[in-house]
Amino acid sequence: MKRLLYIALSALLMTACAEGEGEVFYTAHYPIVRLDAAITLSAADAAFEEQIRTAVLADAPVKEGGSYQLDFNRFDGGLLFVRPTADESPIAGTFDKQPAAKEMTFSFGEQSYLVRSSSYTDETALLPMTLLTVDVTEQYRTLFESESILEVLRLEYTSYPY
Q1: How many CB atoms lie within 10 A of CB 39?
Q2: If DSSP codes are grouped into helix, strand and coil, which group holds residue 131?
Q3: Residue 4: left (phi > 0), alpha (psi -120 to 50), or beta?
Q4: How far apart are CA 158 and CA 130, in angstroms?
Q5: pTM assigned to the model
Q6: Is the Cβ–Cβ distance between 73 and 95 less than 8 Å?
Q7: Of 9, 18, 51, 79, which is most buried with the most CB atoms under 10 A?
Q8: Which regions of the chain does DSSP assign to beta strands (E)?
């Protein structure tokens, strides 16, 4: 009798889990309020650094006023909606993020990249806000054919509490 009860309970739980597969159980919305780049070169060259910064900001998939929306419909990720600017329609994609991890992968359109989340504070924020960081070093080493580029990070400052 106990075995039959366990089988019935297991079947009920599996049905409940299967039905909720497409449901969104949590949404995180990351409005981008500021973009920047952190650039490290092997030798100081302000003009080259500014050239890289200009390219990084121009190539950013989400500009100031745009946003990322993460709809968790799995324990480790879900649907991603990328709004490049406030006026543009969102681009659908997916994201993967292990619970409690600081890194996640965004995939949409032709793009797929690793995003690291951390916090920042400024004079206007009462709470620490989320900073999304993307390492684009290899892309800019190739683009500028330069070995002097040690690190290039795209910094996406959000108004989402950390």
Answers
A1: 20
A2: strand
A3: alpha
A4: 6
A5: 0.84
A6: no
A7: 79
A8: 26-41, 67-74, 77-83, 91-96, 103-108, 111-120, 129-135, 149-161
Within 10 angstroms of residue 42's Cβ, the number of other Cβ atoms is 10
| Distance, CA of 8 to CA of 36 (rounded, Å) | 56
**Residue 91 CB partners (closer than 8 Å, separation 6+):** 81, 82, 83, 84, 108, 109
The encoded tokens of residue 69 equal: 């929306």
Q: How many residues does the chain have?
A: 162
Residues 24 and 2: their CA atoms lie apart, in Å, by 34
As beta bridge partners, residue 103 has 116
Read off the pLDDT of residues 71-113 as tens digits, 9 standing for 90 and up.
Answer: 999 999 999 999 999 999 999 999 999 999 999 999 999 999 9
Question: In 72-90, which positions are buried (b, 16+ CB within 10 angstroms) versus exposed (e)?
Answer: bbeeebbbbbbbbeeeeee
